[in-house]
Write a structure and sequence with these properties.
The chain is of the alpha/beta class. It has 2 domains: 138 residues, Rossmann fold (3-Layer(aba) Sandwich); 67 residues, Orthogonal Bundle (DNA polymerase, domain 1), CATH 1.10.150. It is 45% helix and 11% strand. The chain contains 10 helices and 6 strands; from the N terminus they run βαααααβαβαβαβαβα. Helix 6 links the parallel strand 2 and strand 3. The longest helix has 19 residues. It is elongated and about 55 Å long. The chain starts with a strand and ends with a helix.
């Protein structure tokens, strides 16, 4: 039996919380009289909260005090948490449970590798937490993607060599991190954005059991 490590990002891969980040950031930007668009929100995917706020301020040509900066970050997180508190299983992206169950039936270890500090709460809300053998989130890492730290920690917890790990990611930074870690990268999203991934699928409905079996046997 070949054992591979399957590592999943959370936002945009298992659930789509990007819309909640967008709503929370938009509210924050409006409070500073900054216009914030969906296109700009795309540029915040996989980026830390601090860096995201810095970007928004630079787009709006604003400078604020350190205290105000901290307060805004905290307010944004509270807003975001109020959205995810209402999440349930209907928020899981198509065919994700089917893929996870296939890996479980085939005794393949599964980890979460996410920048989100709220990853554990979200997995509990959508009732998927028990399917993961290891969870690495924003509380466990000091370096954000594209640094591979989050995936390397996940591989270690699964006790699988990085070269035998497969990462599912929807962001440019995440795919780069997987490639840097010497793992197989599978981009979930558009080829225009994730062209540097080893494989690209629009979503999990395009991933067949044969393909998963090939990854396991390789």
């Amino acid at each position: 039996m070949h054992k591979k490590g399957f590592i999943f990002d959370l936002d945009g891969v298992i659930v789509d919380t990007a819309k909640y980040h967008f709503l929370a950031w938009k509210k924050l930007a409006s409070s500073l009289d900054i216009d914030f668009t969906e296109e700009e929100n795309e540029q915040l995917k996989g980026v830390s909260r601090v860096r995201s706020l810095e970007k928004i301020l630079s787009w709006g040509n604003k400078t604020i005090s350190e205290d105000k900066f901290k307060k805004l970050m905290s307010d944004k997180n509270e807003d975001y948490l109020s959205y995810i508190a209402k999440m349930d299983e209907s928020e899981i992206l198509p065919d994700v449970p089917k893929i996870l169950d296939y890996l479980i039936v085939n005794s393949q270890p599964i980890a979460l590798g996410s920048a989100s500090k709220n990853a554990r709460i979200i997995l509990e809300r959508v009732d998927l937490k028990k399917k993961f053998d290891a969870i690495v989130d924003g509380n466990d890492v000091s370096k954000a993607k594209p640094d591979p730290e989050v995936f390397l920690i996940a591989a270690k917890l699964l006790d699988i060599e990085p070269k035998n790990c497969i990462v599912f990611e929807d962001s440019v930074a995440g795919v780069t991190a997987a490639n840097t870690a010497n793992m197989i990268s599978i981009g979930i999203g558009s080829e225009d954005v994730l062209g540097h991934a080893d494989y690209i699928f629009k979503d999990f409905t395009e991933i067949s059991e044969e393909f998963l079996q090939k990854l396991i046997n390789n």
